[in-house]
Amino acid sequence: VDDAPWWTKAVVYQIYPRSFADSDGDGIGDLRGILGRLDHLVELGVDVVWLSPVYASPQDDNGYDISDYQDVDPVFGTLDDLDELIGALHAHGMRLVMDLVVNHTSDEHPWFVDSRSSKGSDRRDWYWWRPPRAGMQPGQPGAEPTNWGSFFSGSAWELDEESQEYYLHLFSRKQPDLNWENPQVREAVYAMMRWWLDRGVDGFRMDVINLVSKEVPLRDGLVHGGLWGDGSAFYTCGPRIHEFLAEMHREVFADHPERLLAVGEMPGVTIEDARLFTDPARAEVDMVFQFEHVGLDHGPGGKFDTRPLRLTDLKTSFGRWQAGLADAGWNSLYWDNHDQPRVVSRFGDDGRYRRESATMLATVLHLHRGTPYVYQGEELGMTNAHFTRFEDYQDIESLRHISEARARGHSSDDELLEGLARMSRDNARTPVQWDASPHAGFTTGTPWLPVDANFLTVNAEAERADPRSVFHHHRRLIALRHEDPVVALGDFTMLLPDDEHVYAFTRRLGDESLLVLGNFTGEERPFDVADAWAFDDGSALVLGNYDDAGSPSTLRPWEARVYRRP
Ligand code: TEU
User: Fold this and answer.
1) Per-state percent for the chain, helix, strand, coil, to nearest 5
2) Which Gene3D superfamilies match (predicted)?
3) pLDDT by residue (tens digit) across 15-35?
4) Ligand 1 centre and the CA of 291: distance in Å?
């Protein structure tokens, strides 16, 4: 227990700087805005801040398209501001983890500008350049080097008029993929990472890091019914991914072992692979973000075609991940981030039972074994954006989805708006609601994305004033993890796997046990865990989201309880 890494009992808070706090009235959040709100993080008690990208960027994908890895975009501030933030967080005993986006750069990054400048450029091979498909003319439909679709709709290839060759972009055309087969690319990335560590940052959240190894030669993927083929089999955890991450660890992390945190964002990662990535003996990364649980409400038509979550599916998924990483490796625990809809709207009830469902969802998440991540506003019970017009959306994924869906003529405007209202990434990107003043205290100017009308009641000031609030509940959950080793390290056992309403599990470490219960519905639900837990031998309720203990056999709407024994 004593030699477990520090991050097993840490909680990470994600800041999406564009939407956190604006200090200069331009309507966009910035670093000085964060500096002005550190009290909020201190009171919450989080250990680490993960900062979404603040690097120089044309902002095609809100900073995930980087044109200079070693500078701050003026929209967010300066390098001096960032140094000040590192210092201020450290002074409060918190760490700062930067986003590391190295599957791709911006097409305006000097590396790509150089690579594009001619076929003979020294950096030509730093990206994936390919001629048109054999026998076809550049630009002709179907002439793309492979049939791969991009994550943001359309082809994953863009034709460069000058050289008449295509470059690969798994995301937007302004995010060309780096060629990790080239050792110079990897060394340039590692040098940049070392520069940040020397500046004082405490680690990295690595954007789509399991996509950097592509199987060569590149070839067509299966067509599942859409316009484009699915290339994911050739780039998800590709042939050299473990080699690359082990190399990165040696080249970047080896000199600063204990202090740092390395978390790999990994769409499509399997449990078997995650075990390899996070087994400390292999020295690759500390933990990964997997996507299984946030795909359970996707329908056959993809993420915008939603279906209701079945609680038994969620239990099966979390249960497998808990078991799979029990004796080697480590889990990350999250509901929300800047790419996912707000969990209280998605799996809870953001109306009548907003407080109850948000606190229940947080309780269930934080009591699993793994490191919990809180996304800005989640601790306030912030909801989805409730946009009803196409004009409100700004996210590139949403905009590309709208234009592709319209071009194909498959869905009505109402259906499209419905899908966006449920799943658009903009749902989590509306400004943080600080108080009931104009624009929720986020900015004195015009916010870049509309503030939700519910800010008059859903805001940090109101949450701080109410001891039962989502905010104070998060504070208690974080404190519990800090104080009680069973939360961080206890064994996990899922109970009631077939129950569609009540989520239940135990945690056990030595003589100590916890029982965690959560009602995933707005009705009273009976439960029976007598096989696993006796309430009469000294169980004490350590945390709940109702004012009184309630009945030992029924949960009230969205109720959560944590019991301790002995
Ligand atoms: O996201 C990668 C990812 O796989 C998805 O979550 C993606 O955002 C998409 O919505 C799938 O529907 C990371 C970043 O978190 C995201 O913000 C970036 O847009 C993306 O990589 C590209 O850098």
Assistant:
1) 35, 20, 50
2) Glycosidases, Golgi alpha-mannosidase II, Oligo-1,6-glucosidase, Domain 2
3) 999 999 999 999 999 999 999
4) 11
Residue 173 within any structural domain of the chain: no
Q: What is the domain count for the chain?
A: 3
* Averaged pLDDT score across all residues of the chain: 97
Q: What is the reported pTM?
A: 0.98
Q: What percent of the chain has pLDDT over 70?
A: 100
Residue 479 lies in a domain: no
Considering only CA atoms, give the Rg of the chain.
24
Q: Is 379 a catalytic residue?
A: no
Atom of ligand 1 nearest to the CA of 61: 19
Residues 196, 59: one domain? Answer: yes
Q: What is the pLDDT of residue 202?
A: 98
Looking at the CA of residue 397, tell me the nearest atom of ligand 1. 10
- What distance in angstroms lies between residue 397's CA and the mean position of ligand 1's atoms? 9
User: Taking residues 32-41, what's their average pLDDT?
Assistant: 98
286 shares a domain with 147: no
CATH (domain of 138)? 3.90.400.10
Q: Do 460 and 353 lie in a common domain?
A: yes
Catalytic residue among 30, 144, 177, 265: 265
Q: Which pLDDT band holds residue 532 (cuts at 50, 70, 90)?
A: very high
Question: Is 482 a member of any domain?
Answer: no
Are 22 and 127 found together in one domain? no
Q: Please check whether residues 91 and 129 belong to one and the same domain.
A: no
Residues 399-456: pLDDT tens digits? 999 999 999 887 899 999 999 999 999 999 999 999 999 999 999 999 999 999 999 9
64 in contact with ligand 1, CB cutoff 6 A:
yes
- Say whether both 293 and 400 belong to one domain: yes
- ipTM tops 0.90: yes
The Cα-based distances of 472 to 359, 461, 464, 541 in angstroms read 9, 12, 7, 17
Burial class from Cβ neighbours inside 10 Å (0-12, 13-18, 19+) for residue 217 reads exposed
pLDDT at 345: 98
Q: Is 502 among the domain residues? A: yes
How far is 362 from 377, CA to CA, in rounded Å? Answer: 12
Residues forming a β-bridge with 505: 494, 516
For residue 557, give the nearest of 383, 366, 352 by alpha carbon: 352
**The domain that contains 434 carries what CATH number?**
3.20.20.80
**Domain co-membership, 397 together with 460:** yes
**Active-site residue, 43 included:** no
Return the pLDDT at 1.
67
Number of H helices, E strands in the chain: 16, 22
Range of the domain at 321: 6-105+183-471
Nearest partner of 89 among 47, 32, 55, judged by Cα: 47
205, 348: one domain: yes
| Domain CATH number, residue 503 | 2.60.40.1180
Distance 173 CA to ligand 1 centre (A): 14
